[in-house]
Amino acid sequence: MRILHVLDHGLPLHSGYSFRTRAILKAQVARGWAVAGVTGPRYNVVDAPVETFDGLDFHRSSMRPAGPPPLGEWREIGVFARAIERAVDAFRPDILHAHSPVMGALAALRVAKKRGLPLLYEIRAFWEDAAVGNGTGREGSAKYRLTRALETWACRRVDAVSVICEGLRGDLIARGIPGQKIMVSPNGVDLSLFGEPLARDEALAAELGMGHEVAGYVGSFYDYEGLDDLIAAMPALVAKRPQAQLLMVGGGPMEPQLRAAAAASPVASRIRFVGRVPHNEVERYYSLIDVLAYPRKHMRLTDLVTPLKPLEAMAQRRLVAASNVGGHRELVEDGVTGTLFAPDNPAALADSLAALFADRAGWDARRARARAFVERERNWSSNISRYQPVYQRLSNAAAMDESWSRLPPVNA
Predict the structure, then answer these.
(1) Mean pLDDT over residues 150-168, rounded?
(2) In what side-by-side order are the strands of the sheet with 95-99?
(3) CATH entry, 192-377, from 3.40.50.2000, 3.40.50.720, 3.90.79.10, 3.30.420.40
(4) CATH number 3.90.550.10 is the correct assignment for the domain at 2-188+380-400
(5) What are the residue ranges of CATH 3.40.50.2000 in the chain?
(6) What number is the average pLDDT over the span 96-113?
(7) Strand-strand pairing, 271-275 and 291-294
(8) Mean pLDDT of 13-19
(9) Distance of alpha carbon 140 from alpha carbon 314, whole angstroms
(10) What band does 44 get if pLDDT is binned at 50, 70 and 90?
(11) Residue with the larger pLDDT of the pair 53 and 72
(12) More confident site: 227 or 380
């Protein structure tokens, strides 16, 4: 089986998107499949037409074309489609596997139709909702409606659809996409990357002034992550647990506002920002955090999409506290593998963190249950098997009959 993955971006860029991609490709290679990726023009790296990182080959598009919307996007689809064709000529795939956003699916559709290749489209989040979540779009706007319509149009025309969670699957079914056409390939982690967690880094703790009741967040600072609620919860948490501290690792669009809110807090001395840290240093900071907090706001994006960070925290045997939104409920069983608290509610967040700090005797059992859940249900080495029957059916049908139906059933 030869699979060409059509990607917005990939390695060497570090992002949740590229880490999921790496995990999928590595797991497929381990199964004996031949894989390659082709990245879009927004990646803007053209040093070489093909580059290899971490043993994986990535074909590159040329630079992103200029032009006002929607002309610029239309030209971008054309540039991307030509890059996909070049990759098809070089790699000779059996399957095209496009990953969101929808620009990649639209470009891949052109090539799939021209070359007679089956196409699976994988949606990690709806582009229009992601724009609302990061503050670059508005729900219900003309651009929002157009992007949503394009997503639906693409899903009707590809041969099969993959989504990362039940929330996205349910939304597509509500739009009229046949449920039997949609498979779920949930977020997972590469457990080979997570051995025994590091012991507490006492030198780093001393450098940062971190004690032994530390809540923390490691990741990107977007508005939908609800980090303003985490900072707002700190006075109430410190009132209940005087030794409590907050460690913020990462950066992003909300960083200036969050730093200002922390500086104005009556417990400003208990909140520490360290900015972005090198990827190979992140585990040192994780070692100082007792409870990883994920206070995502309640909105379409967070109700429909499951994040990756809580799974990584569980894989590292870290305690997880997360807001009670749909995406988190697919990952966290309240009181068993983690703690769920009311979203958009700093007081509820403070209460949940205080209760966790007060129940240190139960930490080891909860960590073990969370790790077991990841091993059992969110391990990429086993998750990847979900693709096989879909790939096999699509490639067999395409090989046997050029007039095969483009709406056959796939695993639900």
Answers:
(1) 95
(2) 50-53, 56-60, 34-39, 2-7, 95-99, 119-123, 160-163, 182-184
(3) 3.40.50.2000
(4) no
(5) 2-188+380-400, 192-377
(6) 96
(7) unpaired
(8) 85
(9) 36
(10) low
(11) 53
(12) 227
The phi-psi region of residue 8 (left if phi > 0; otherwise alpha if psi is between -120 and 50; otherwise beta) is alpha
Tell the residue number behind the tokens 């095209």, with chain if given: 96
**AA letter at 360:** R
Largest interatomic CA distance in the chain: 70
* C-beta of residue 111 within 8 angstroms of C-beta of residue 15: no
pLDDT per position as a tens digit, 186-203 = 988 888 777 778 899 999
Long-range contacts formed by 326-329: CB under 8 A, 24+ apart = 326/167, 326/302, 327/165, 327/167, 327/296, 327/302, 327/303, 328/294, 328/296, 328/302
